[in-house]
């Protein structure tokens, strides 16, 4: 992830980034945070499905997502054929609710099978109203 982050930092023209099913985990989210900053206003689509990311990992780059004015598609769900999944839980749901309230450019958000539970679902539901 660090090498990819450095490579993208030098390009700055990445519009679509598919990192699905790569076991990034929360630790790797530091590099994802760097990638988002490096891409600036170019990144339109980010796929982080099936990467064993928790709510703590999402919280790490939440401010960057909120401030991003180009990202239209974010996938934090689970790929159908993957043995890995993200498990954002209530902490991730609250982060995503904050994202939905404050970021007005996001058009699609995939969060299937993330262990939100009823309270997490309610937090996201309230943010969508």
Describe what is shown at a glance.
This protein has 129 residues and is an alpha/beta fold. The protein is 49% helix and 9% strand.
What this model shows, in words?
This protein is of the alpha/beta class. Helices cover 49% and strands 9% of the residues. The chain has six helices and four strands. A four-stranded parallel beta sheet has the order 1-2-3-4, with no helix packed on it. The longest helix has 15 residues, at 25-39. The mean pLDDT is 90.
The largest pleated sheet is described as: 4 strands, parallel
Residues in helix, %: 40-55%
**DSSP E strands, number:** 4
Overall average pLDDT: 90
> Residue ranges: pLDDT <50 for 5 or more in a row?
none
Q: Please provide the ordered H/E string of secondary-structure elements.
A: HEHEHHEHEH
Number of alpha- plus pi-helical segments: 6
Query: What is the terminal-to-terminal distance?
Result: 36 Å
| Beta-strand percent range | 5-15%
List the helices and strands and how they pair.
Elements: H1 2-11, E1 16-18, H2 25-39, E2 45-47, H3 55-60, H4 62-67, E3 73-75, H5 89-102, E4 108-110, H6 117-128
Parallel strand pairs: 1-2, 2-3, 3-4
Helix pairs in contact: 1-2, 5-6
